[in-house]
Design brief:
6 helices; mainly alpha
Length: about 180
């Protein structure tokens, strides 16, 4: 298996993610998607945290504007609309997205406690649009149909920078 594509992190990336999250970033192993300005948008997190906790969410949406836009979609009930699409072709593509997610995580580390568990409700439910959009941004268009649709519907786009001025001195963390 090959490791999923993501950029190695720098101290500046970790400081930026910590600022974005409002807490120290932890167990970040790479940047899976970036804003057009270069700031992290999606981080890749270790499948097993340093404290031993299994962590199924490989792709984590960190960009505040993206997170806010996706939260608005969830608050407006879009998840029900998207879940209704899981019949037929979209459902089959969603199962494939789940399998892709599992393969990406497994290529980093096998964690038996989370075998078969991906993120966002895949492969049968739409549970967390943040995780599904993060997967879409990390994997690229066409891999996660529900994440792609949510990204199309939200009031944020990865092609327009909405970043704050992140400062290394605001937060520190072990990544």
């Amino acid at each position: 298996m090959t490791r999923p594509p993501f950029d190695a992190t720098t101290a500046e990336d970790i400081a930026t993610v910590s600022s974005q999250l409002g807490r120290p970033a932890r167990n970040v192993i790479g940047i899976a998607a970036r804003c057009v300005c270069g700031a992290p948008t999606v981080v890749s997190t270790k499948p097993r945290l340093d404290d031993g906790t299994p962590f199924p969410t490989l792709y984590y949406l960190s960009h505040p504007a993206a997170t806010a836009a996706v939260s608005t979609l969830e608050a407006n009930g879009v998840m029900v609309e998207l879940a209704a699409l899981l019949e037929g072709e979209v459902g089959a593509a969603y199962v494939a997205a789940h399998e892709s997610y599992l393969a990406d995580r497994e290529s980093i580390e096998h964690v038996p406690e989370i075998d078969g568990i991906s993120a966002g409700g895949m492969p049968t439910r739409v549970k967390c649009l943040h995780a599904l959009v993060a997967h879409s941004l990390a994997a690229g268009p066409g891999v996660n149909p529900i994440g792609d649709l949510a990204l199309e519907q939200c009031a944020w786009t990865p092609t327009v920078c909405e970043c704050a001025n992140y400062s290394e001195s605001e937060h520190t963390g072990d990544g």
